[in-house]
Specification:
Elements lengths: L1 H37 L7 H22 L1 E2 L7 E2 L5 H26 L6 H11 L1 H9 L13 H29 L4 H32 L1
Helix pairs in contact: 2-3, 2-4, 2-5, 3-4, 3-7, 4-6, 5-6
Length: about 220
């Protein structure tokens, strides 16, 4: 009986240890997921971030072309008919390059740290990953159909668009604070100014592009 009791206790201890390890692994897994979604720069930066980010930008452009959704502004997502494939690609690269230019320039004004264009470029490309998700879900909306026939999908996509937009802003802010080495009110104020400048500049650029396109 004593031997059986000992074996039972050993089994209980083994199960308890296994459950504790599984819980720790689960917590570590979800921690990495949370960090990866909000601060992916912990895991990827520099040239690797730039390469992956550019691939995601091109993927966003492809999905945008297939679904009819356009990103003709740093913070703009909407449907538009008959946009050429090359313009969908140009939108992604222009949105990204304008953002990099503005944040890189403002970073030099606000920070005394050495700011690398490669780091800003890679981080801002990764920051637009949520737009890739938005362009993918746009495939399930058919803007050419009557609105009454697809209220559900449109409301769902509106929620997705809002969530991905807020997510993008969060990633951009984290990238700005990390790679421009700013914090506190200077970081908040500088980010707001940079975001507004990026949006206005992108709208002006795309207005000229679309005016030229319609004129042709």
């Amino acid at each position: 009986m004593a031997l059986n009791a000992l074996k039972t206790n050993e089994c209980i201890i083994f199960v308890a240890i296994a459950m504790e390890e599984a819980q720790e692994q689960s917590e570590e897994f979800w921690y990495k997921i949370r960090i990866g979604l909000t601060d992916p720069y912990v895991f990827i930066k520099g040239f690797e971030a730039l390469a992956l980010g550019l691939i995601l930008l091109l993927g966003t452009g492809c999905f945008g072309y297939l679904s009819g959704v356009v990103f003709n502004g740093v913070l703009d997502i909407h449907f538009q008919k008959a946009v050429p494939f090359k313009l969908h690609m140009a939108e992604q690269l222009l949105d990204w390059s304008i953002t990099v230019l503005v944040f890189y320039s403002l970073g030099h004004i606000l920070s005394n740290s050495q700011i690398k264009i490669l780091d800003i470029g890679g981080a801002m490309a990764i920051a637009r990953f949520p737009m890739f998700i938005a362009s993918f879900f746009a495939l399930f909306v058919h803007p050419h159909l009557p609105l009454i026939n697809q209220i559900g999908p449109i409301l769902f996509y509106a929620a997705i668009s809002l969530a991905t937009l807020l997510w993008t802003i969060k990633l951009m802010y984290n990238a700005f604070t990390i790679y421009c080495n700013v914090e506190g009110m200077r970081a908040v104020g500088g980010f707001i100014v940079a975001l507004i400048l990026s949006e206005v500049l992108s709208l002006v650029v795309f207005f000229q592009i679309y005016q030229h396109l319609l004129a042709d």
